[in-house]
Amino acid sequence: MKFAYLDETGSADQSDVFVMAALLVDAYRLRKYTTEFDRMINVFLEKHPGLKKELKTKRMINGEGGWSEVSADERKEFLGKICDLAKECARVFAIAISFSEFKKAIAASHGQPFEASYWIGTAMFLAGVIQKRMQSGKKNKGLTVLICDDNKREMQNLSDALHAANSWFDPLYQASKLKAGKTVWIELNDDLRFDQIVNTAFAIKSEHSSMIQVADAVAYVYRRQIELLTEDEEWDGEKKYFEQLVGRLPKNERLGRTPGGPCIDFYKAAQHKQWAL
After folding, report:
1. Span 2-270: which CATH code?
2. What are the pLDDT digits (tens) for 25-44?
């Protein structure tokens, strides 16, 4: 069994970039690395009394609130260590969309079964890519559980979407085979749709899960790296720093080859221009 910890970052009043990231961890490694992340985060927070017992990467790295009492070098070093440990223990799945392009894609009526929710849209994309990777692994056993930072408005909708397993999402994880030298895409039936994903997503408060906090860190690193391609730095060396952090993360699992169709057209239209699906 595997656990995928999902968190997101970005809002339209801050920039045009929204990123959702998932950390995929094997069950047998989960306890070990949860303990390591718990220790790392707790030791860091205990050194600075008065800080909230939860890591919010954007506030931390920019020295907002109580984080202003922590030196910039210490904050940067700490985020780097989180990225290094994430690379050691997890596979990363992520997607970056443009808020403005997402709205245009919704209006273009690609038949998407999630109305105008970018949270559901990106979460289901990641579920599809995780499904694709898990179904192709010969040694994969059990199912993958999605665990999200608590989102009271959307969690039930995500569970409903996973349970419904709408065929619109099929191209995200449809398998193919060669027949007479040509690629043939294998049609899916209800039994095969999202059969590697537990069809109920689970929510947990981020302060209760170091893995959710790490997913937040990974998502923000990707987000800020994209923003700095067109925005001015908030502090000297910020662009180079986030470029280096992206290089320290596990390689993002890409979508790969697909049969195309409205689903793929939608995500290609909604993706941020600086992001590759």
Report:
1. 3.30.420.10
2. 998 889 899 999 988 888 88
